[in-house]
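Give me structure tokens for this 740-residue protein.
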Amino acid sequence: MSLAHPPNTPDSSSALCGSNFAEKFDVLIVGAGHAGCEAAAAAARMGLRTALFTLNLDLIAQMSCNPAIGGVAKGHLVREIDALGGIMGEVADSCGIQFRLLNTSRGPAVWSPRAQCDKALYRSKMREKLESIANLFIKQAEVVDLIREEGLQPGTARITGVVLRDGRRIAAHATVVTTGTFLNGLIHCGEQTYSAGRSGEAASVLLGENLKKLGLRETRLKTGTPPRLDGRTIDWSRFVEQPGDADPTPFSFRSLAALESGIVNSTDDSGKPGTRPAKPAAAHWQPPLRQICCHIASTTPETLELIRANVHRSPMYTGQISGIGPRYCPSIEDKVVRFPDKASHQFFLEPEGLNTHEVYINGMSTSLPMDVQQAMVHSIPGLENAEMLRPGYAIEYDAIDPTELDRTLQVKRLRGLYLAGQINGTSGYEEAACQGLIAGINAALFARRAQQKSWANEEDAAEEISASFTLDRTEAYTGILIDDLISKGTDEPYRMFTSRAEFRLHLRIDNADARLTPHGRRLGLIDDAAWEAFEAKQARAAALQRVLETTRLTGAGLSIVTAALEANTRNEVLTTTEASLLTAGELYAQLLKRPSITLETVLPALLPDLESQRETRPEFVPWLAALAAAEYGQGGALPVWVRNEMKTVETAIKFAGYLAQQKRAIQRLRDDESRTIPTWFNYRACSGLSREMVEKLDRVRPLTLGQASRIAGVTPAAVALIQCFLQIQSRTAQPLPEAG
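Here you go.
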């Protein structure tokens, strides 16, 4: 199927059945959190008439917990969203007030960008971005029910629209539900309990109850948030400053594209190819907002004693909360109970914006009563006089078992219904946003097909699957997240970690565009300017790799590299040994295979060669201009954006053996994924499978042997057995009778 961007057809919703609808759209998005914003933007930019429904227009993309984007593994997700054409990275770059690239002392696989954002400005910028998108209509209304239409055959029911609280019926070919923590949300603060989706906002009770009528398996989850303090009442001198990076790294590849320089390929208004001068290069990317410091602190023995003395008042331990909380982001009382021998717990004081005094206490999530929270805060030196603006609280909410979904995030039993975000059992803005993007893309593709025909049989369903867009575990962390959810489900809020990736050296932040931007281009989410910048970046990397693989170290270069190694005091013995082994005539690519030699080490020696090729290799012009602007040859620092781009090439050379090994493993996994399991396959006919495995396989209904192998409790022997019976059943193209 072609994924080319289609022309907009204003009357494309006219094919919907029935005339008792107040309005008709191609795609409806329920909820304007981080998942809903990405879903709405994707569907509208793919040319589908899209409506985004929210309870409050002023709280679009509200950062209900920490006003920060990214972090370990989460930064990978944001880069992938951006590479596909999503908008979270661009918005975060526009309102970030502190940028940090984490884990740079470790390997490139775990480098992760993070930004503290201005909370109010993030909402404003996201709304501004959404309102600039053609085909997207944002509406303030409460969705209370879904409209279900039964198909001609069993298993072909569809969701054809929604019902609003005022009784209006809105029609659509596809609907994406992204309700976050609002479904039957219940807030706990000590002994106090009240219904809410977030503090001060009404829960979505009617929609929550009506979703239960669809027969989907549900679970009850819990998350929480810490108190907020008045920064004017904090003695900042008592805490350790945590500044951001002096040369920050943005999330969006489009932010970096503004740094290009030189002559680039272009076309004129008539479509004829030509060239155009680009903007002058900048040595560094400059965030548009003033940058601030966060602060580091720790609890005291008095803090811990207060918590121990009052833990019986926490709803987590009174039985008041039935939902399961996130294991990797526990409340402060849970930390104290689970780690009784730990003398202190670290936390961070993080401002919520440039025009507010509100401060977020990262690491002190709690549902203890307000009086205990206040005493706990005052027990910390520097916070003795701190005023609490908002108390911390826990919130539990309904979620849908994600094994009810297929790889496109569509509900298996209800065509045209997609779920994304915390309703699928995840935690975090980034996990929600990447799901929203995938769900929005697939809802748009579904709606585009639904304009042309109505599916009613198995053959049409297969066509629907082939017309979808999915990512697998070898392509993106987004693919890992979705595969984990639909294959294993989750009994706690799911959080992404780099350790979840089998091929994390392959799935780095620096090559997210190389992995995913061609997909975004085919889908119509990457515009001409972004595509041009992407191609220029790939050309720079390819040109540098060719130079490194063909250029040899000269006598002058040998002296420069030796001096650089001897100046490296982090591993004096190793670098001295390496320096003694250097010889003129070695290829630079061979040098980079040595553990202690990096591109930063050899670049001063290589720079004259790059300069000499300015005319013959115009790809290097942006780097050379940035190096000149930074006065790199005169002792200035290597610009971070240049270093990061060059690191992609260094990684490919230095870890070529590991990457080749991963490539072979990736192919084996893809071979497993290519072995599909028909929807009619009968697991109960497979004698030798335990009842528990049969129940899990029947519930998940994996699409491939690879997915079956990742279901908890399904052994390799069981997968081999399924493959054997699959071959037998395939001969007759029908299931065998049940065993025994």
